[in-house]
Design brief:
Layout lengths: L2 H14 L2 E2 L4 H7 L4 H5 L17 H4 L1 H13 L4 E3 L7 H4 L8 H22 L6 E6 L22 H18 L3 E7 L2 H18 L5 E5 L14 H8 L6 E6 L3 H14 L3 E6 L14 H13 L5 E4 L5 H11 L15 E3 L3 E3 L2
Parallel strand pairs: 1-8, 2-3, 3-4, 4-5, 5-6, 6-7, 7-8
Antiparallel strand pairs: 9-10
Helix pairs in contact: 5-7, 7-8, 8-9, 12-13
Length: 353
């Protein structure tokens, strides 16, 4: 299948059933207990700064580990896997002095995921597998000051974000992804920059892909870090006309349900959800079992909230397999038809009429 065929197959599958996204990448990487030497590999053995924790770099130094994670999620029933590129833009890579490697890392991440997806599609052509290029939020926030004594200060500009996201997107497209996933959005202005960069990259490359958006909330109020409610978050980004919107990370499934339910009512596109396996315990581990998450996701599916479902931090192929089995009997959420109205967003939403 070429990319045009894959995109058509993705859109057709989304109409027929709840699609399964993969689970946590970092969780699976840590099962291998990679050392500083593993992160460095031969190529970066003399790098001047520590590299342990730079998970995206492993697509260059330990590609077998990353490809193995992708394959494990496909074995568990995933339709869509994410590239190992969550932090692979210049802004986050600056922590390791690796800004110049951003494009190379994204290209390698996309190619690894593409190889795994194509291999599993060849095994079961009736169930094609897809690759979403993962774009994380960076470690900067465009809406808030990092200095409590200077609320007007910003340590990143909109244009800097656009440049970094644009480079990342172009490399992911070149590597063969089927969709772009802007995820773990805690600052809506960062996501606006990412969305602008992605659309610009589509124009520059002549390749337009489905765009997926996934926000995250910072507390039980259901607001993101920049203070927006789920409805306001959607109205701020609806102009991007995404293939899907949803929530990820944050809490376990039960705590994430209220903001997702609010978003589901106002979003006239597909809904995605991939929660953490609960909150970390005192040892930094996640306690929600595959059975726990599957039970929660089944109730979401039964109530018509899901189009795409997977797992985030703490989830494994066992979680994804259990979720896939639990939601299989249920139809996908019907996309609501909303009346044309004036819809505005600040920290909260406003709908006229």
């Amino acid at each position: 299948m070429n990319r045009t065929d894959r995109i058509a197959a993705l859109k057709a599958a989304a109409k027929e059933r709840i699609l399964i996204l993969d689970g946590g990448m970092g969780t699976m990487i840590q099962r291998h207990k990679p050392t500083e030497a593993d992160y460095r590999g031969e190529r970066f053995k003399d790098w001047p700064s520590d590299l342990k924790g730079n998970n995206d770099l492993l697509v260059l130094t330990q590609p077998a580990i990353i490809k193995g994670v992708h394959e494990a999620y496909f074995e568990a029933g995933a339709d869509i896997i994410e590239t190992n590129s969550f932090n692979a833009q210049r802004i986050s890579m600056a922590d390791y002095g690796m800004e110049a490697l951003s494009a190379e890392i994204n290209l390698a991440a996309a190619k690894l995921a593409r190889e795994a997806a194509d291999a599993y599609t060849a095994k079961t052509p009736e169930k094609p597998r897809f690759v979403a290029g993962s774009i994380g939020p960076t470690n900067r926030t465009a809406s808030l000051s990092p200095d409590v004594n200077n609320p007007g200060f910003r340590n990143i500009s909109f244009d800097e974000l656009v440049d970094a996201y644009g480079e990342q997107t172009r490399a992911l497209i070149e590597g063969g992804v089927d969709a772009i996933l802007i995820e773990t959005i805690f600052d809506t202005l960062n996501a606006k920059a990412a969305g602008f960069a992605v659309k610009k990259a589509f124009d520059e490359t002549g390749v337009e892909l489905p765009l997926m958006l996934s926000g995250t909330v910072t507390d039980l109020s259901g607001r993101n870090l920049s203070g927006q409610t789920p409805e306001a978050f959607w109205y701020s980004l609806r102009h991007l006309k995404p293939f899907s919107v949803g929530m990820n990370c944050a809490f376990g499934a039960e705590q994430l349900r209220p903001p997702v339910a609010l978003l589901s009512k106002v979003a006239d596109t597909y809904m995605s959800v991939y929660a953490n396996a609960g909150l970390p315990n005192e040892m930094g581990e996640y306690d929600e079992t595959p059975e726990d998450m599957a039970r929660a996701m089944e109730s979401w599916a039964a109530d018509g909230l899901l189009n795409i479902v997977g797992g985030c931090c703490g989830t494994t192929p066992d979680h994804i397999a259990a979720i896939a089995k639990a939601v299989a009997p249920y139809p996908p959420r019907p996309i609501p038809e909303l009346e044309p109205r004036l819809r505005l967003s600040g920290l909260e939403s406003f709908v006229q009429g």
